Amino acid sequence: MKKKNKISNNKSIMSNSNKFLTVLSVLALTVFIASCVNDDDYNLPDLTINEPNIPSDKITTFEAVKSRLEQAQANGDDTAIIGLDEELYIEGYVVSSDRSGNYFEELIIQNKIDDSNPTNDPRLGFRISINVASLSDTYEFGRRVIVNLSGLTIGEANGVIVIGKGDGSDIGQIQAFEYKDFILRTPEVATITPKIVSISELTEADENTYIQLNDVQINRNELDKTFAGEPDDEFDGFRTIESCENSSTIILQTSTFADFKSLQVPQLKGSIKGIFSRDFRDDFNVLIINSTSDIVFDNNERCDPIELSCGIASSQGTNNLFADNFETQIRNAPISGNGWTNYIQSGTEGWEAYSATGSNASLGISARVGSFRSNDVSTIAWLITPAINLDAQENETLVFKTSNSFSDGSNMEVLLSTDWDGTESGISTATWGVLTDAYITQDSDSFSSWFDSGIVNLSCVSGTVYIAFKYTGSGEADFDGTYELDDISIDF
After folding, report:
1. Residue 458's closest CA among 383, 372, 400?
2. Structure confidence at residue 29 as a pLDDT band (50, 70, 90)
3. Which residues, at least 6 apart from 393, have a Cβ–Cβ distance to it below 8 Å?
4. Residue 485: is it exposed, middle or buried by C-beta count within 10 angstroms (0-12/13-18/19+)?
5. Which of 1-15, 281-295, 407-421 has the lowest mean pLDDT?
């Protein structure tokens, strides 16, 4: 019994000792915390962004940077290198955002907030290549930045001016461990006003800048598509934006990594904001949006042409109303005679007679049109038949053949009008419907073959009509191709 009491007493002593030590620990921790805080004021980290202390005489203009690259190229170099011993900066505004995934490891900066803010520096923009994801967390849209150019290289990639680290004749990325030494944040986040411009007015000077297109829509043949979620969208989705004002077009480019890639393209018409750029291979102009909030297509009055369809006839008529195989035309001269109206609405290229042998042979003498290397900003050419009276007989049909020499960005349509007055000035104001049943060669078709239109039924149309073959270039003369036409016949 005495032993048990001794053990019990020892436990009691140990318990009291533990309690005493616990109290001492709490008191010590309290004293330690109190010693780290002044007057119970718990300070938050200082998140203030200070204006970088850069001498004003060390900040150059975008135009001067561009001129330096042009001078280097004139001397036979691909790039312009800014020496490590040079103290040189530019300041601009971020107009790209990778938050939705449509941009990746790059910043687009431009030198103007808006075009109502005049400066001596023309409106320009540059792409900065940085090996860092989620750049918009640091450099959000509208953030004014100062770029330390010392040790960087200026060049061209994918058709636009790029700033990065020199890698031979190429432009490499600024790396993660150093990018904040080159891209300096300022406290200012500006409201960026896009330049409102029409598609046909865009020039190289607008590349890498934030623009807005009004009164535009996605081409009617692509309304069933997503932004970039189709099986053939390998790296990017390309959808055609067309102007309701003058039918000019530009390609909407969307990355297959964008979080909105699987959304259906907007069905209505309206305005769209984005960065004007070039495609990966520098073949054609593109518009790249930061997110779908850049698109406001809220007008349900689309500007699609009227679509006319009587179907495909089972057989071609045996009585002819109009025909031409162009064999009486003069080679390399504009198509003329036989009632044709050969009208150039825009540009310098019209329909002409030609003959060729070899893998892309003509059918004797054929008609062709194309804007390739024309240097035209816009190309629209019409070849219109004489008037055809569809009331004097029944079961009229149309047939023709088409071929192409890599049509690429250009387009050809077959149209019909019942109200054209026969004058060139009246072409643009007349009502033209698309004969949707007629097959026209596609860019994916073999360039060495001729393709039948099918026997296009015209029997559901009445009155006196005109049939037009209309060529429209994309505005990219180095990318547009050529269409060829022959063996036209209207019968009943």
Report:
1. 400
2. very low
3. 319, 321, 492
4. buried
5. 1-15
pLDDT at 43: 54
Tell me what pLDDT residue 39 has. 45
Average pLDDT over residues 15-40: 44
Residue 52: partners with Cβ closer than 8 Å, 6 or more residues away? 146, 184, 186
Structure tokens at 476: 């990219």
Which of 149, 142, 144, 148 minimizes the C-alpha distance to 186? 144
Neighbour tally for 22: CB within 10 Å: 10
Mark whether 291 and 312 lie in a shared domain: no
Q: pTM for the full model?
A: 0.79
Range of the domain at 454: 306-491
CB 272 within 8 Å of CB 241: yes
| Residue 332 and residue 247 share a domain | no
* Structural domain contains residue 422: yes
| Cα–Cα distance, 9 to 110 (Å, whole number) | 82
Closest CA to 129 of 81, 96, 172: 172
For the stretch 81-124, pLDDT in tens is: 999 999 999 999 999 999 999 999 999 999 998 877 776 778 99
d(CA 111, CA 441): 44
Regarding beta strands 380-384 and 464-472, do their DSSP bridges make them parallel or antiparallel, or are they unpaired?
antiparallel
Distance separating alpha carbons of residues 398 and 312, to the nearest angstrom:
10
What pLDDT digit, counting tens, does each position of 294-314 carry? 999 999 999 998 999 999 999
Find the helix or strand (DSSP H, E) in which 8 lies: helix 2-36
CA dist 363 and 488 (Å) reads 12
Residues 250 and 360 in one domain: no
Q: List Cα–Cα distances, 405 to 447, 479, 487, in angstroms.
A: 5, 12, 18
Helices (H), 207-332: none
Better-predicted residue by pLDDT, 34 or 236 = 236
In contact, 464 and 349? CB cutoff 8 Å: no
Tally of CB atoms within 10 A around 36: 7
Residue 411 contacts residue 480 (beta carbons within 8 Å): no
Any idea which of 11-15, 173-177, 347-351, 461-465 has the lowest mean pLDDT? 11-15
> Are residues 480 and 369 part of one domain?
yes
Q: How many C-beta atoms surround the C-beta of residue 118 within 10 A?
A: 7
